[in-house]
Design the sequence.
């Protein structure tokens, strides 16, 4: 085997020195406070059986798609799924991608053009930033959820540029903070400035909305944005993503989104699982109601244990406790795991240095006793510090 490049070895060594070297975890059987499976759909037996039933009824026996969707991989289930998604989320059209990462790099590398400008929240997901970086438009970040500063940036851009479009990008629930922007004010700002608003709803689907359609639907703003990205690997418990928007946007992405064009389509079983999960979520609200109850109970317990000041305010399923320093947050995570709770540390460089945190993901299947016990253990760690 050839020698590994010295420059790359040095980067790994630096990560190890900073206690930030990533390693693949193994299943640990602990109480789940870390996965994105907010509604427990990933292990839902009904969804599993219904997905198989869909394939059986349609006589589909296939392990793979055999090619890209533009060649041989556009299984008939795609049309059925995209029609269902458009109806469920209240959109003119939907285009399915293999993952949320594929959807974001496909959209942001293809839609904004060389003469355009993209403003993105500084805490936007890596897939959004990577997609923007692959594109030709100028891009600038704006302070997290600071719409006054964003307005000033848009105004200054309009003053110096007479052509080109402006795109504004945010998330309805931020994955590393769990907080949300003022979406109503953001819609009003973009409408008044003629900017195209794009919202990633990955961590809002299944958590907000009457049937789990996301926060934009919950606020009645679904028709006020240019595009939405929804993913199926979080609350829906399966895999893949979709971009929601107009028929024209869908046609454009089919023609120009490279992460869509140059990849093998999803296997039929993945499509059937998304169909089954979407149908299950639309018919059964019990899990979502229990999740909302658990979120409120968690917040009540934060106040009871006097932990609220250490947490970033959140109404979502993601709650983050700031614990500065990679070594400390990693140590606290291990102590919680020793007590039976799977709570993961989020370390720099994933988050900025000094903003390391313990990330608590809440689920419909977490019990009140589990929530009480994990927060009691956390309170004890603060008492020892």
Sequence:
């Amino acid at each position: 085997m050839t020698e590994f490049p010295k420059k790359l070895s040095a980067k790994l060594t630096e990560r190890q020195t900073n206690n930030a070297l990533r390693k693949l975890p193994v299943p640990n059987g602990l109480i789940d406070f870390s996965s994105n499976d907010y509604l427990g759909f990933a292990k839902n037996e009904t969804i599993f059986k219904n997905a198989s039933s869909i394939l059986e009824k349609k006589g589909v026996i296939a392990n793979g798609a055999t090619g890209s969707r533009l060649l041989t991989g556009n299984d008939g289930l795609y049309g059925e799924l995209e029609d269902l998604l458009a109806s469920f989320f209240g959109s003119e059209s939907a285009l399915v991608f293999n993952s949320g990462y594929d959807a974001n790099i496909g959209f942001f590398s293809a839609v904004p053009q060389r003469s355009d400008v993209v403003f993105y929240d500084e805490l936007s997901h890596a897939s959004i930033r990577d997609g923007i970086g692959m594109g030709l438009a100028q891009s600038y970040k704006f302070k997290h959820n600071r719409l006054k500063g964003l307005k000033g940036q848009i105004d200054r851009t309009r003053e110096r540029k007479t052509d080109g479009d402006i795109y504004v990008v945010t998330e309805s629930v931020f994955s590393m903070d769990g907080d949300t922007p003022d979406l109503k004010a953001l819609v009003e700002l973009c409408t008044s400035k003629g900017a195209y608003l794009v919202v990633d709803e990955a961590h809002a689907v299944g958590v907000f909305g009457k049937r789990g359609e996301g926060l934009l639907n919950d606020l009645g703003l679904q028709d006020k944005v240019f595009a939405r990205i929804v993913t199926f690997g979080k609350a829906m418990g399966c895999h893949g993503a979709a971009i929601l928007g107009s028929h024209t946007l869908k046609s454009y992405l089919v023609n120009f989104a490279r992460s869509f064009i140059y990849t093998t389509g999803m296997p039929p079983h993945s499509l059937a699982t998304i169909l089954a999960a979407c149908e299950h979520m639309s018919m059964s609200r019990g899990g979502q109601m229990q999740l909302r109850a658990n979120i409120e109970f968690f917040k009540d317990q934060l106040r009871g244990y006097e932990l609220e000041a250490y947490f970033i305010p959140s109404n979502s399923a993601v709650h983050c406790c700031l614990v500065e320093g990679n070594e400390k947050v990693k140590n606290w995570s291990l102590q919680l795991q020793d007590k039976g709770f799977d709570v993961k540390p989020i370390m720099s460089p994933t988050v900025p240095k000094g903003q390391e945190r313990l990330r608590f993901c809440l689920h419909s299947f977490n019990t009140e006793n589990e929530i009480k016990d994990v927060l009691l253990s956390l309170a004890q760690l603060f008492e020892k510090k």
User: Anything to note?
Assistant: DSSP finds 14 helices and twelve strands in the chain.
